[in-house]
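cron nightly-structures :: item 1 of 1
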Amino acid sequence: MKLSQWAKKLGISYRTAWRMYQKGQIPNAIKLPTGSIIVLEDSYDKSTGIDNNTVAIYCRVSDNASKDNLERQAERLKEYAIKRGYQIKHIVKEIGSGVNDSRPKLMKLLNQNDYKILLVEHKDRLTRFGFNYIKEWFEKTGRKIEIVDKTDDNKTDLIQDLVSIIYSFSARLYGLRRAKKKAEEILEVIQNNE
C-alpha cells in the first residue's frame, strides 16, 4: 500500500509517516524507481484476519495517587507503538495492585483476540507474579507480549505490593478491620528498617 494509505490506516498524518520513513522507522517500506514509497503488507495473518502489527496497550498503576503517572505511561506506550508502525486497537488503563488477580479491565483485554501484540511498559505492570504463564498462553494463541522497558521497577511499588499481599492474607486471618491495622503496622516496620 502507498505510504499515504498506510498513514491513514494508522491514524497519523502523511508528514509524520514521511519523517518515520526517512528515519528508517518503517522496516517494511520500499522506495520504487518512480519515487513512490510502498509499505509492504506482509504482516497480515490470513488465518485470523488480523494484522500482525495490531497492538493492545495495557497501563496500570497501584493506587489513585499515581493516576497522573497512568496517563504518562499511556502516552509513552502510544508514542512507542506509532514509532514502530503498530496499529493501536485498544488502550486500557487500570488502577489496581499487580498482585490482584481480579482486575476486570485486564481480564476483558486478555479475552479479546483482535490484536497480536500486548504492549506493556514493564512486565510488572501486567502482573507481579505468574508473568511467564501469561506469556506462554499468549504464544500458544498466536500472540505475544512486548515489554518496552525491561529494567526493574522502583522499590516503592514493590513495597506497595508487599503491603497488598499482607493486607489480603491478614484480612482472611483477622477480619477486615484488624487487617488494615496489621498491614499498616507491618509497613511501618518495613519502612523503619530501610
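cron nightly-structures :: done
The chain is about 50% helix and 20% strand.
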